[in-house]
Design goal:
By secondary structure, the protein is of the alpha+beta class. Helices cover 21% and strands 24% of the residues. It has three helices and three strands, in the order E-H-H-E-E-H. Strands 1-3-2 form a three-stranded antiparallel sheet, covered by helices on one side.
Length: 92
């Protein structure tokens, strides 16, 4: 995606976060927003594999989206987008 471009196709608020800890290797990375998916790189860390799934579901429920980009230096850039305009169905 082009920097500064919203995947929503409309004016939106974007919150970006850089993750500096080890992440899923590239073959697993494309599945990080799926329910119960955990990275094999950190087997000693407890968790249910629901965190990013829930973040994605919340964004979508509000007309938004979440993206993740694996950067060359091992960092992951997460971008949380919410539309600036309230969806019509939410106003009624």
């Amino acid at each position: 995606m082009e920097p500064g471009r919203s995947p929503l196709g409309e004016p939106s608020l974007c919150l970006e976060v850089l993750n500096t800890i080890a992440t899923a290797p590239p073959p697993e990375f494309e599945h990080i927003f799926e329910r119960f998916k955990r990275a094999s790189i950190r087997p000693g860390i407890e968790g249910s594999g629901l965190g990013l799934y829930v973040v994605h579901a919340i964004a979508r429920a509000h007309g938004g989206d979440v993206t993740a980009e694996l950067l060359e230096d091992g960092l992951v850039r997460f971008a949380f987008y919410l539309p600036l305009q309230c969806p019509v169905e939410a106003r009624e």
